[in-house]
Design a protein that fits this description.
Layout lengths: L5 E5 L6 H14 L4 E5 L5 H11 L8 H25 L3 E5 L2 H11 L5 H10 L6 E6 L2 H8 L12 H17 L4 E5 L4 H21 L2
Parallel strand pairs: 1-3, 1-4, 2-3, 4-5
Helix pairs in contact: 1-8, 2-3, 3-5, 4-5, 4-7
The structure holds adenosine-5'-diphosphate and thymidine-5'-diphosphate.
Amino acid sequence: MSRGAFITFEGPDGSGKSTQIRQLESYLTEKGVDVFLTREPGGTEIGEKIRHLILDPANHEMDHLTEALLYAASRAQHVAQAIRPALEQGRTVICDRFMDSSIVYQGFGRRLGTQVRIVNEIAVAGLVPDLTFLLLVDPIEGKRRISDGFLDRLEREGMEYYQAVYDGYLQLAKECPSRIVVIDGASTIEEIQNKIRQCTDRFLLDRERRP
Ligand code: ADP
Ligand code: TYD
């Protein structure tokens, strides 16, 4: 059996990832695709405990390097226990955030730079997404969209951090143009979903045709 496809969604907080992922999952499932939906940080029992530790506003003393290592630890567990086994079973894995989030949030946002890549390369052990949708909304719009609910530790960060995250995503998209599809997150939910479906259909078809 051939390995399943690995699709990730990235973007600033409030860019619409969860909304789009839910709709893509229904679309693919109706077409008979075996989808495994997961998210980061989290995705496993241990990962969800790490997620709670990282996002808890009470942990305001957390050092930036500790934060980066915890994300990487959650990812290592996620890859080993959930993502890689699902791919090996031929399932299509859709993941809400993956390594790119660390490169951008910890590398650019927290200014930890290339050391974030190094620890994450260890964590993912060679696993790279086949296709990544990057939903981009400017930091002000992103913050506006999430400002109604409870804000976790990271969502309480200032505008400078959000701007660095936005700039980091732009730079990453330039570095990986064949993997990362950039989508204007300010379009309507329907317009965005149509584009995502078109790209996914084309990508899955190309994959099927490959010898
Ligand atoms: P994320 O998972 O990236 O944080 P969500 O999908 O949870 O984002 O969306 C954050 C908020 O923005 C939700 O209230 C959602 O209904 C709204 N939203 C999502 N996509 C759009 C869009 N294209 N235009 C306007 N609002 C949107
Ligand atoms: P979450 O509630 O999942 O946010 P969203 O709905 O926007 O995806 O919280 C995840 C937060 O963790 C979000 O602010 C992004 C951040 N994050 C990192 O800083 N580094 C990472 O490696 C990952 C996976 C997430």
